[in-house]
Amino acid sequence: MSKKAYITTPIYYVNDIPHIGHAYTTIIADSLARFYRLKNYDTFFLTGTDEHGQKIEQAAAARGKSAKEYADEISAKFRALWDDFEISYDCFIRTTDENHKLGAQKAFEVMFKNGDIYKGEYEGHYCVSCETFFTDSQLINNEYCPDCGKVTTIVKEESYFFRLSAYQDKLLKWYEDADECVIPKAKKNEVISFVKQGLRDLSITRASFDWGIKLPPSLGDSKHVLYVWLDALVNYISALGYGTDEKNISYWPASFHLVGKDILRFHAIYWPAFLMSLNLPLPKHIAAHGWWTRNGEKMSKSKGNVVNPREVAQAYGLENFRYFLLREVPFGQDGDFSQKALIDRINSDLGNELGNLLNRIIGMSGKYSGYKLDSSSVLKFYKKDIDAADAVLCSAEAYMYELQTNKYLEEIWKILTLANQSITIYEPWVKIKEGKNEEAAAIVALSANLLAKAAVLFSPIMPKTAFSIAKSLGFELNTKAYEKLIVNKNLLDKTVITPIAPLFPRIEKELMNTPEPEAQKKEARKDEQLISADKFFNSKIQIGSIIKAETIEKSDRLLKLSVDIGEAAPRQILSAIKAYYEPKNLEGVQVCVVTNLKPAKIMGFESYGMVLTAEDKNGISLITPQTLKDVGAIVK
Ligand code: MSP
After folding, report:
1. Is the beta carbon of 263 within 6 A of some atom in ligand 1?
2. Which of 76-85, 178-187, 257-266, 552-561 has the weakest average pLDDT?
3. C-beta neighbour count of 366 within 10 angstroms
4. How far apart are CA 36 and CA 31, in angstroms?
5. Using the 8-state DSSP alphabet, how is residue 166 labeled?
6. CA 557 from centre of chain
7. How far apart are CA 116 and CA 135, in angstroms?
8. How does pLDDT run across 347-383, given as a tens digit for each residue?
9. What dihedral do alpha carbons 403, 270, 229, 104 form, nearest 10°?
10. From the CB of 22, is ligand 1 less than 6 Å away?
11. Three-state secondary structure call for residue 630
């Protein structure tokens, strides 16, 4: 039985279309999975989408879609991008999959049985954008999320808690014992100091909305859904059949969980604690990468500067993009995307070093030997060059295990430089003139072998390029080639070279328009925000008169309104306007009400509609008709 490797990406939220950050994690994970396959590991590579939670529910509602409808649409976009990018995943999991649901419920049940879950009441702040709970002292200016800066909401509801505090010492021991459980080291140290400050029990269910996995039926409590991070983290085992058929469970524990630095805490603290409670082995490596900026600026939709990976791959080529992403930044550090940096990498590393070397080999072999390549005299004349290259290639692999892909590629490029230099220094054209044909053939074969060895090792990162080079040099790029050329340090058999067109034509100018942010915003408006009139009229908006307004004991934001819209009885509607209106002043005020919304439960109260408001820097105001109208009148 060959050794097993299990590689995962985070599962991506479906509130947004894929951007360079998603592509980066996925391409690193894909390269790592291909690296393990090359080395004949039985490899399982998982990616997918994270589809539950308040953030998705709100994003769907903002577009007038059901959460599932919206999740289906965006999940398909992720999958289509990975398919177009030929990402070699073995499983694409969706947290709305039935198997995942069963796996997540089983995990909850086991943790409950093991005494790690208890019922209580949660009171604190919640950032919907990060799907994270915060205490008062963690907030910025008592209100804003310390991670993303957005306004948080106050949550006070019944909740089940996980005894995270009980795992503090066990986690610290794990960090100490398993040296590389979190990489890079600097990130691991941040996790350790966070845990040392003390861990509080974690709220792991939500009761104020529905879009999530229900608690296991055995608990007989259908009010709650699983906290989206518990739901999401379990994907790493449910994808292997945990809680269902256990078909692929032997891949566990994960060899590498690839994550961005912003979600390391969930993976390096909550996830191992959950696993300890489940009595499952812990992941071998949790690897946190940095963030990409664009031209030195943080990317955001509002700035209109988000890098679209599909656009980059179309303009510059997918393989070039993959090379750039993995070569440009040391793993763990932030990186900057600019077309200039990408073009420099393509023209110099890929064009001048790699492409040029292949062209020279094709040219020389055509001229001197009718494209025949014979390696039999290489060791006679140039053993020391081959030995030097083999030593470098052998040590390069260690970098890949640490995900130092930039160093890994740097080492491989040393071989390409050596090959180019050997042609220049040994001058096969002079040898031919001197009648030393065997030596000339050996120089061509030396450089071809160095290129072949390099191509085998960079094939996980640029698979298509490596395969084209192998085809041109006349060998098959597979595990056998890896064993022969890299492990056993052998040379190519006699082959025939096939000329191919230059792989990296020089790029003289930027190939993507970078619209001004303002212009880009207008573009976005054109694509995303224009809807047909029909769609607008899907919402039924009517004039209503507020009969009564009351505060809700536990809420700082909500008022409970009783609104007459001309039906048999007034409707109960909750509205987040408490900070702006005295309840008694609202009686008799006319408002615009969306009356055909599905009822929602907010803080334990049913709400049968939505009162329209407008918000600016001065706060929130109700939208009222300019003159009194009959209740029930249609707004259009
Ligand atoms: N759904 C959670 C993950 C659950 S895993 C059990 C999530 N999803 S996400 O879609 O918001 O983010 C996915 C990944 O994209 C994260 O690893 C995050 O670090 C990464 N990136 C988001 N923006 C990024 C950049 N600008 N640059 C690099 N990566 C970034 O979090």
Report:
1. yes
2. 552-561
3. 13
4. 9
5. G
6. 34
7. 22
8. 999 999 999 999 999 999 999 999 999 999 999 999 9
9. 100
10. yes
11. coil
CA dihedral 458, 459, 460, 464 (to 10 degrees): 130
pLDDT at 605: 85
Domain architecture of the chain: domains with CATH:
337-496 (1.10.730.10), 533-622 (2.40.50.140)
Best residue for ligand 1 mutational test, from 15, 25, 75, 264 (most atoms within 8 Å of Cβ): 25
Alpha carbon of 487 to ligand 1 centroid (Å): 36
| CA pseudo-torsion sign 13, 18, 20, 23 | positive
| Chain segment 491-533, per-residue pLDDT in tens | 999 999 999 999 999 999 999 987 544 444 454 444 455 667 7
> Is any ligand 1 atom within 6 A of the Cβ of residue 331?
no
Of ligand 1's listed atoms, the one at least distance from the Cα of 290 is 28
317 ligand 1 Cβ < 6 A: no
Question: Which atom in ligand 1 lies closest to the alpha carbon of residue 299?
Answer: 26
Q: In angstroms, what is the span from residue 107 Cα to ligand 1's centroid? A: 24
Q: How far is the CA of 583 from the centre of ligand 1 (A)?
A: 42
Q: Is the CB of 204 under 6 A from ligand 1?
A: no
H-helix or E-strand spanning residue 378: helix 378-401
AA identity, residue 20: I
* Pair type for strands 91-94 and 117-127: unpaired
* 124-151 pLDDT per residue, tens: 899 988 989 898 888 888 888 888 888 8
Q: 483 is written with which tokens?
A: 């064993």
Pocket test for ligand 1, best of 94, 237, 271, 291 (most atoms within 8 A of CB): 291
Cβ(346)–Cβ(417) below 8 Å = no
